[in-house]
Amino acid sequence: MSYKLVCGLEIHAEVKTASKMFCSCKNDPFGASEPNINTCPVCLGMPGALPVANRKAIELTIKLGLALNCKINLFSKFDRKNYFYPDLPKGYQISQYDIPFCYGGYIETSEGRVGITRIHLEEDTAKLSHQDIDLDGDGELDKATLIDFNRSSVPLIEIVTEPDIISAKQAKEYGQKLRQIMRYLDIADCDMEKGGMRLEANISLAKDGQAELPNYKVECKNINSFRFLEAAIQYEVDRQTKILENGETPIQETRGYNPETSKTFSQRTKEDAADYRYFPDPDLPPVEFTAEQVEAIRAQIGELPEAKTKRFMADYKLNEKVAIDLTKNKTESDFYEKIMLAATKEKIDCQKIINALLNKKIAFSFADSVEQIIANFKEANTSENVGDGELQNAINKVLSANQDAVEKYKAGKTAIIGFLIGQVMRELGKKADVNFVKEKIIIALG
Ligand code: ZN
Ligand code: MN
Questions:
Q1: 104-121 pLDDT per residue, tens
Q2: Ligand nearest to the CA of 79
Q3: How many Cβ atoms sit within 10 Å of the Cβ of residue 146?
Q4: Going from the N-terminus, what domains does the chain have, and what CATH number goes with each?
Q5: Mean pLDDT, rounded, of the chain
Q6: What pTM value is reported for the model?
Q7: How far is CA 185 from the centre of its chain?
């Protein structure tokens, strides 16, 4: 019996807004100079404090949805997701339950389309930090857990896919494409090491040919790199295959991933969605958009990475590999495009100058001016002026000193011309145009 992977991803990303999701505190969880300075009664979870939704965060969520081919709910609302954990002292997270801002989108990958079920907006929690501190002043360290509310109520976008992912590699590709698009749109920095983007995978296996979804799923949480995501999924495929081959069903549970052992481990059995007792947040009015407002947001999307790759290939005659390389990062792609525009004006082959830059044939930094880079490229690629007499003398000298090579050439071993060109160049001591020198040698060889 062979099995196929059935996998869906849930990805959270912290949205780049000036202020937090439901209060006017500064949204800067990584840049804050000390814990708990960007706080107020709302994001500290004080009873009776009233949240006000951040319009910019909602618009960015819709912008992402449109970029990912989603439909937009013109009427939406915020709901309370009730659970208790020390990083969420008010006892509920403001999220979206049955009417997310966006639904029904997709991202294309090399292994097929990955459907996007929904994109909703919620608030991040505070951050717990487990430390050893002398709490009672007896000189001994005590186990302590500290809470930093700088992150509390930072807007958090959640993107949920259909169980369309069929390989660990495809999961990684999807995640990388999603991150690239969020960065292009300047919606999120997606710094995974700091926790600005967090990955979860729902993983199960179906029998080959089985149409319906498996009757269990294993959720792998808190994965902070695409490499670990790929490894965790692959580990689960192997683990679950063994269980199924024994005629058993894997336990429905939440598992973590340990990068040191490259293994997943059991954390807890999965609670049902109903346990959260979702209900509409009575403190927040529903959110309504007109179709015109949505179209105005769509107009701000700009060029996305795949379109830019195709345009670079068409406009600047780049090969696909280089065009993909150049468009990985928006700021860098804008820089390279300025160079290619200037190169085109100067009738310089864009692929040539880009290759020279990428292969470090000409040194440059992103701070250099376009003019300087073009000048450096020309300098490295123009041949010096070589006088006719000067060249002829050099050719005569080389041919008479290398009679055996001349004989070989005349006998049909024309590849030897490369050697002769090299000798002439050395004799000249200058960088002459290779094709011009070659032409002259062939004439001299008669
Ligand atoms: Zn606040
Ligand atoms: Mn969530």
A1: 999 999 999 999 999 999
A2: 2
A3: 13
A4: 3-125+153-295 (no CATH), 303-380 (no CATH), 388-445 (1.10.10.410)
A5: 94
A6: 0.85
A7: 12
